[in-house]
Amino acid sequence: MALDELRTLITRHARAGVTSTPDGVHVALVEHPGEPEAATTGTVLAVVVQGAKRLALGDRVHDYRAGQYLVASLDLPVTGQFTEASPERPALGVGLTLRPSVVAELVLHPAARDLVAAGRGRAVPPGVAVSTAPPALLDAVLRLVRLLDRPRDLAVLGPMVEREILWLLLTGDQGATVRQLGLADSSHQHVGHAVRWLREHYAETVRVEDLAQLARMSPSAFHRAFRAVTAMSPIQFQKQIRLQAARVRLAVDPRDVAGAARAVGYESASQFSREYHRQFGAPPGSDAQRLRAAAAVEVTA
After folding, report:
1. In the sheet where 128-132 sits, what is the strand order?
2. Which intervals hold domain HTH araC/xylS-type (predicted)?
């Protein structure tokens, strides 16, 4: 079976954590479930080969396990963790960075015309979606991972297998989400303008009306589309980015809670502490100390 061989290959190639290649292939091996960690998705296909993972985006929670995959069409702030993993049976996964340029080529192919037409006028698809991987997709992913043993062949054959994988995604259960990557005027592309602005200017005061103008949408249409894609309002999204940025700062200097709050745009230190505690499960200083202690253990291990 494809999953059996994938387990063998990933175990051989993956170091603890995530190992990535310049070609955008990622293999993961995790021996402990761990605590939920804040991260960003990237535009990615992620297949669980062994174990199980949970990913939370806004008010949506996605659980997926061996034989299932997740796709993300935008780089979104999430909280994720492997929920089933042990040294005896580690969680294993393989990922592929989804390149919009390649998706666009396939979307423009005459064979995709009916797919694009069928999507017009439908509800905005989510930015993150989960499905069971069909045998054809698992087989293509397996052939891609096999190429890790042949680096020279990977450079030539990898892009061919990548196109096959993307085509199978485009024509599969979550094709509507993946197609958004390749459509220049898609709802995800419009929302993406606002997402990128919020990432770069998260500490600034923002009005939804200004973000809607940036996305070239009416305020009401923009708000609906943004929530459909990200499972958050624009203000909630900005708060997520602010808190993640503050956490990075506090991991360096856990004593300067007030400074971290100001740096990411909070005027009230008490509000910052409340929202940080709600997001990460501990007050800012305590959480930062825990992160530093965990990092020290990893360095000495």
Report:
1. 17-20, 25-30, 91-97, 44-50, 68-72, 128-132
2. 192-290
- Bridge partners (DSSP) of residue 65 are 52
**Cβ 170 vs Cβ 115: under 8 Å:** yes
Flag whether pLDDT at 297 surpasses 60: no
Q: Helix 234-252 to helix 187-200 angle, to the nearest 10 degrees?
A: 40
| Residue 219 to residue 224: CA distance in whole angstroms | 9
Name the nearest CA neighbour of 191 among 235, 239, 243, 230.
230
Tokens, residue 125: 């698809």
Both structure tokens of 108 = 């423009």
- Dig out the tokens for 269 from the structure: 């230190």
**Annotated domain spans of the chain:** 2-181, 185-232, 237-300
Residues 6+ apart with CB under 8 A from 209: 219
Q: Which residue, among 264, 273, 275, has the nearest Cα to 202 in the 3D structure? A: 264
Residue 301 has pLDDT above 70, yes or no: no
- Nearest C-alpha neighbor of 219 from the set 208, 228, 229: 208
Looking at residue 57, its amino acid is L
pLDDT band per the 50, 70, 90 thresholds, residue 6: very high
The CATH topology of domain 237-300 is Arc Repressor Mutant, subunit A (1.10.10)
Q: Are 229 and 177 in contact (CB under 8 A)?
A: no
Q: Is the dihedral of CA 73, 79, 83, 87 positive or negative?
A: positive
**CA 36, CA 20: separation in Å to the nearest integer?**
21
pLDDT of residue 96: 96
The pLDDT tens digits of the residues spanning 219-278 come to 999 999 999 999 999 999 999 999 999 998 888 888 889 999 999 999 998 999 999 999
* CATH architecture assigned to 2-181: Sandwich (2.60)
CA-closest candidate to residue 287, choices 17, 38, 39: 38
